[in-house]
Amino acid sequence: MRRTQWAAWSLAGALVLGGCSGYHHHHHGSMDSGKAEAYWQKGQQDMASLIDRTVKDPAKAQQVKGIVNDIVNELKASREQERAYHRQLYTLNASYTATPEEFTKVLDEAHHQHMGHSAKILSLRFKMKELMTADEWKALSDQMLAYSSKYQHGGAAPSSSGY
User: Fold this and answer.
1) Which pTM value belongs to this model?
2) Do the domain assignments include residue 7?
3) Structural domain of residue 106, as residue ranges?
4) Residue 155 half-sphere exposure, CB side, CA atoms within 13 Å?
5) Residue 152, φ and ψ in degrees, nearest 5
6) Is residue 149 part of a domain?
7) What is the pLDDT of residues 12-32, one digit of tens each?
């Protein structure tokens, strides 16, 4: 699922925030909410700085930052729902009498919710792109890719997922 989060950020054009969250948040939400919120805020601040350096029109830069905030809110909701589905799977796993159908139902619901969040993030990505020139988009994407590499295990840049 972590790779799916990276794909969502690729779609959103905001790898910075996904990188901060994915690396420090650990796999099942073991970080306390105060620290997690601090990482989200740091990612948003860093992203705002990248936008200010890249988007020349201050009014459009503000709009782009607003879209980034919407993306962050969508990712937070997605992360919380993912954690809730994981808790359901842990509960089922502990039940000796749990059926394959019960697991499949939870997995199907999780997939459906994830696809909804991904579609929303994709829509926001295109709204963001519409506000920027091709040169600004490329410059911002390049800066985010370089920045997000810091948060990847081993420092490798994220692979392209074709989005």
Assistant:
1) 0.71
2) yes
3) 2-155
4) 0
5) -85, 150
6) yes
7) 443 334 434 443 344 444 557
